[in-house]
Structures are given as structure tokens and as C-alpha cells.
Amino acid sequence: MAQVIDGKKLAKEIQENVTKEVSRLKSEGKQPGLAVVLVGDNQASRTYVRNKQKRTEESGMKSVLIELDEDVSEEKLLQTVEELNEDDTIHGILVQLPLPKHISEEKVIDTISVLKDVDGFHPLNVGNLFVGKDSLVPCTPAGIIELIKSTGQTIAGKRAVVIGRSNIVGKPVAQLLLQENATVTIAHSRTENLAEVASEADILVVATGLAKFVKKEYVKEGAIVIDVGMDRDENNKLCGDVDYDDVFQKAGFITPVPGGVGPMTITMLLSNTLKAAKRLFDKQ
Ligand code: GUN
């Protein structure tokens, strides 16, 4: 029977440490600041952004929300990002994705200062992660590593399989596991004998975006199973990419949905903003 990895509890513990550090910095007259840019009126994005703002304020950081109309020009958005790059009270910049179709997400990401790119999406941060240099690491993958470490199990030398190869989750989490000296396989929709490949994993990270995709045949006895999914089942109930009930008896550790990976993502955003702020304060 699996032990449940409590993402809510871990996220709270890490946020408490961030809050303490922010408080210490503020006592020296230095307040970290995060700016979130929201374009248009996507309801899901609006909810995510509201949560990010709330948690940023709770941590004692400055929180700025810039809202732009759906039909804002690409030029105006790029100019907004450039102004935030120059703003000494802002240490982290996050432009909520997806953006309207007439705006190039690539151009926007490339325009964010590498030092303020708290999403870790800028090509220089991606490259630094790849070569093992200090970088701002994408929030969900960073949270996944913390969740795995919280089990107390050793990562080095273990077989890790990541199902999913997105730039936001699959590829960076594989890179982080490699840095932790796991033997890493990235599997995806074109992988042959996927269940067989997955069932070799001591650490299985699932980011397919398909509700209850991973069944017990995919899971090695005692494996650590990390479910990145946020899906709806046949009864419209929130569920993950892993069939939790099917896998529970076989896994050694498992993250629930909700309450696993989700709560960690915003915490790592705060942690990244703190890291970016400290680096920028040191330069001033
Ligand atoms: N939209 C959904 N997830 C994310 C994220 O992690 N960062 C940004 N910028 N947009 C998102």
C-alpha cells in the first residue's frame, strides 16, 4: 500500500521558509517583488493568477498585476515586459500563458530578462539547466523534485521514467532527475511498449494530460509515482493522469490529485522570485 505524499503540507513548509526570508530581507529595506501579466479574459488563467497573487502577498512580497486587453498589440506587451525588466522593485516577471493567437509566446518569453524569468522558460535558463549551471528552474518540475526528496528515498542510481515531453514539465523534470544522478528515460505518446517501459521505473513521473491513463500494469511494486495531471473523470470529478485507486496498492509512494503537485507549483514560484530577488539585490 502506498504512502501518500502530502503536497499541501510540503508546500506550506517551504512557503513558511520563504516568508521568513522575505521578512528578514524587508528588515534590511529590501522587498522582493513579483509582477504577473495577464492578457485577455481566460477564466482559468484568471483563477491561476488570482491564486498566485494571493500567495505572493501572504509571503510578504510585493505583488503587481498588469491586466491587458485581449486585443493588445504584441508591441505593447513587449514594451510592458521591457518596462518591468527595468523596474528595480520587480524581481520576478511572469506572463501568464496561453496568450492570444496574434501574439508570439516565443518573442514574449525571449524578451523577459533572464534574471527575472521566474517561470524558467527563457532559452538561456533552459540552456543553463541543461548544462547543469545555476538557473531559474520551471516551477512544476522544481516542485516535483522536492516531492520526491520528501519521501526520504535516494534518487541517485535509480531508474526514473517521465511520461510526457513538454517544455514546461517533461523535459525539465527529466533534466533535474538526471542532475540528481537518476538513470532517466523520457517516454511519450509514440513510445512502444509504454507500460513495460514505465514499469521499470523506481520513480515514475506522469504528465500525459490524459485522465487516469496510468494503470497498475505501468507501475513497479514500491515505485514513487508523481501525478502531474489535472483532469476530469467520467463524472466530471477532478482526477490525475494516474488511476489512483488502481495504482494505490502497488506503489510505494503516490501524490494525490488534488493536493500533490498542484500546491507545490506556486510555492516554487515564490521560491524562484526570492532567489531572483536575492541575486539582484547582491548586484545593486
Ligand atoms: N499557464 C499555465 N501554467 C503556466 C505557468 O507555469 N506559467 C505561465 N507563465 N503560464 C502558465
UniProtKB/TrEMBL annotation:
Binding-site list for NADP(+): G164, R165, S166
GO MF, one example: methylenetetrahydrofolate dehydrogenase (NADP+) activity
Domain S-adenosyl-L-homocysteine hydrolase NAD binding: 128-254
Keyword Nucleotide-binding among record annotations: no
UniProt entry tagged with the keyword Lyase: no
Pfam family, one: THF_DHG_CYH_C
Gene3D superfamilies with a match to the protein in the record: Leucine Dehydrogenase, chain A, domain 1, NAD(P)-binding Rossmann-like Domain
Signal peptide interval: none
PROSITE patterns xrefs: THF_DHG_CYH_1, THF_DHG_CYH_2
Enzyme Commission number(s): 1.5.1.5, 3.5.4.9
GO terms under biological process: L-histidine biosynthetic process; methionine biosynthetic process; purine nucleotide biosynthetic process; tetrahydrofolate interconversion
CDD domains in the cross-refs: NAD_bind_m-THF_DH_Cyclohyd
GO cellular component: a single term: cytosol
InterPro entries according to UniProt: Ado_hCys_hydrolase_NAD-bd, Aminoacid_DH-like_N_sf, NAD(P)-bd_dom_sf, THF_DH/CycHdrlase, THF_DH/CycHdrlase_cat_dom, THF_DH/CycHdrlase_CS, THF_DH/CycHdrlase_NAD-bd_dom
Pathway: One-carbon metabolism; tetrahydrofolate interconversion
Reactions catalysed according to its record: (6R)-5,10-methylene-5,6,7,8-tetrahydrofolate + NADP(+) = (6R)-5,10-methenyltetrahydrofolate + NADPH; (6R)-5,10-methenyltetrahydrofolate + H2O = (6R)-10-formyltetrahydrofolate + H(+)
SUPFAM superfamilies assigned to the protein according to its UniProt record, in alphabetical order: Aminoacid dehydrogenase-like, N-terminal domain, NAD(P)-binding Rossmann-fold domains
Keyword annotations from UniProtKB, A to Z: Amino-acid biosynthesis, Histidine biosynthesis, Hydrolase, Methionine biosynthesis, Multifunctional enzyme, NADP, One-carbon metabolism, Oxidoreductase, Purine biosynthesis
Homology family: Belongs to the tetrahydrofolate dehydrogenase/cyclohydrolase family.
Complex and partners: Homodimer.
Functional summary from the UniProt entry: Catalyzes the oxidation of 5,10-methylenetetrahydrofolate to 5,10-methenyltetrahydrofolate and then the hydrolysis of 5,10-methenyltetrahydrofolate to 10-formyltetrahydrofolate.
Protein name: Bifunctional protein FolD
Organism of origin: Listeria fleischmannii 1991
